[in-house]
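hi support,

uploading two proteins for the ticket. first:
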Amino acid sequence: MNVKRLTTPITNEAINELRVGDTIEISGTVYVGRDAVLPQIVNLIKTNGLSEYNIELEGGIIFHSAVSIAGLGPTSSNKVEIEGNFPELSAAGVKVHLGKGALSPQTVEVLKEHNSIFVVIPPISAYLTNKTLKREVAAFENEGMEAFWKLEVDRFPGIVAVAHGETIF
């Protein structure tokens, strides 16, 4: 199996080389958010408030999960509270959305428009936790494990599920 390695910040050129079915490993900064916090991040984008939290989404990755002592694992990305934020997050520079579940045709088109991709991660909490070098809350600490987190990861695995208007679903 040929594994493609990505390091943040992710460039358009790196995205252009990926195809549906590719296996990837991610190193660098990954932001973590899900239902409760992603709409708040979108509000920060709309109000130019990301810098208050030192959040840089250009070339970024958002993992649809929560951070807890039980470990890391993807949540369903096709929940309206998550998938509904793809347009704004992708427009703000997010290149890779990590999670699980099939996305709507509209979201596939949004990803194509912004040269962003969706990568699925099998539910492998212990393995992902082992690949996490550092974690800290980036914003909205009051949300607990569902706060917006900043992780430093090494060789985080994933499979490209949506790219360039194509999908594996």
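and the second one:
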Amino acid sequence: MSPTASRTVFRQSQFLIRRTAVRHNSSDAANKAKETVNQATSKASEGLSKVSSSAGPAITGAAQNVGNTLRKLGGPTAKVVGFIERSIPPTVYYSRVGLELAKLIFRGQNMYPPSIATFQSYFQPLINAVRNPSTLKNLSFSPQGILGRARGLSTKEWALVGVTTAEIIGFFTVGEIIGRRQIVGYQGEPAHEGH
């Protein structure tokens, strides 16, 4: 029995309890209905546990059969399947490590997700601009306004801006090094001598 079907049976059995109690207005009928519901619920949970215990190995077996079949084809398909199968355990491991690290950082920095009201206050102008594009013409970004805001920053905010800028430059530099596969220069075709 699927989880959806067991939930449906459970909901209908609760409905039957209420209907029976309203019709007969007696405690005997209600007790009998409750017993029926308890029996139906226990049967549904037993069925659900049987299905879930047999479905897990069945899904795993089906995935393995598909993998084995694709591996038998050989060539690039077998290489891709092998690569994916080798990549799954490290991916799961590092995603769990990243999640735990994120939890530690969130706790250490006393961070919390923003409230719905905060989301609405930040995204409401964007939503309004999408609904009414003519409001975008009225926006003006003047250098005086930007300089005024920059002059109003505190020392702590300037330090945060400096650290963030250094992080961005550092990540960009590391990305460039990885992309070039060396610290200086790009790999590629030698200079065209005839041009």
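thanks. also noticed: The mean pLDDT is 75.
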